[in-house]
Amino acid sequence: MKKKQALIAVNGELRGSKEEYRALFEQKDLTIIAVDGGLLLLEELDLFPHLILGDLDSLPQDKVEYYQEKGVEILPYPVEKDETDTELALDYCKRKAYTELFLIGARGGRIDQELANIFLLEYAWRQGLDLIIKEPGLEIGLINKNKKFYNHKDHYFSLVPLSERIQGVSLQGFQYPLADATLLRYKTRGISNKFVEASAEVIVDEGIALYIIQEKV
Q1: Which numeric CATH code is attached to 141-214?
Q2: How confident is the model at residue 217 (pLDDT cuts 50, 70, 90)?
Q3: Which CATH number fits domain 5-136: 3.40.50.1370, 1.10.12.10, 3.40.50.10240, 3.40.50.720?
Q4: Residue 127 — very low, low, confident or very high, per pLDDT cuts 50/70/90?
Q5: Which of 73, 80, 124, 154 is 20 to 30 A from 96 (CA-CA)?
Q6: Distance CA 165, CA 162 (A)
C-alpha cells in the first residue's frame, strides 16, 4: 500500500533557496499543510497549501480569507490551548492516516519552539508516524532499533540519545564505527561522526535516539 505523505510547514525559518527546497520534494506526492505562519514560508517557495491549521495568530485575516475563497480547508484552533500548532498538525495527520511526514521551518525563531519541534519527533514516533525535519543539507529524524542510510558519503552524522541511555549501539559505514556500545544522553560521544561508505547502518538495541545528517558544518 502506498504511504500517505504530507509536507508540514511551520513558522520558523527557511535555510536554503526556493530551488533547493523544491528539489527535496518534487518527486513526492504530498499533501501540503500550512501550520499558522508556516503559510508565509510556503508562499516564499511558491507552494500552495491543501490545508491551513492552527490558532492563526500569525496571519492577517484577509490572507486567511483569500485562501478560504480559493477552496483551501481552514482548521482553526483557539490561541489558549495545551498543544503547539505543530503538535496539532501531527494529531491531524494521525487521524487522516498519514504515515510519512516532512517538516520544514522547524528551526529558527524562538529557541523553545525549535526544541519543541525537535522533541515532537518522539511524539510522532509514539503515534506511529514517520516524521523527518528536512531542509537543504540537513535531516533530523529518530532511530529505534535500526536504520540504513544510502548516498551520504562524506556527510556529517551525529547520534543523540533521547532515552537516558541507548544500549547495543553499532555503527557501520562511518569514520568512527561502534560495536555494542552504550551512549548516554548527558555525554557527547555520538557527536560529529562522518559517513565513509555509500551505505551505512545504525543499530540501537535499547532506547531511542535522534540522528542528524549535515552536508556541511
Answers
A1: 2.60.120.320
A2: low
A3: 3.40.50.10240
A4: very high
A5: 80
A6: 8
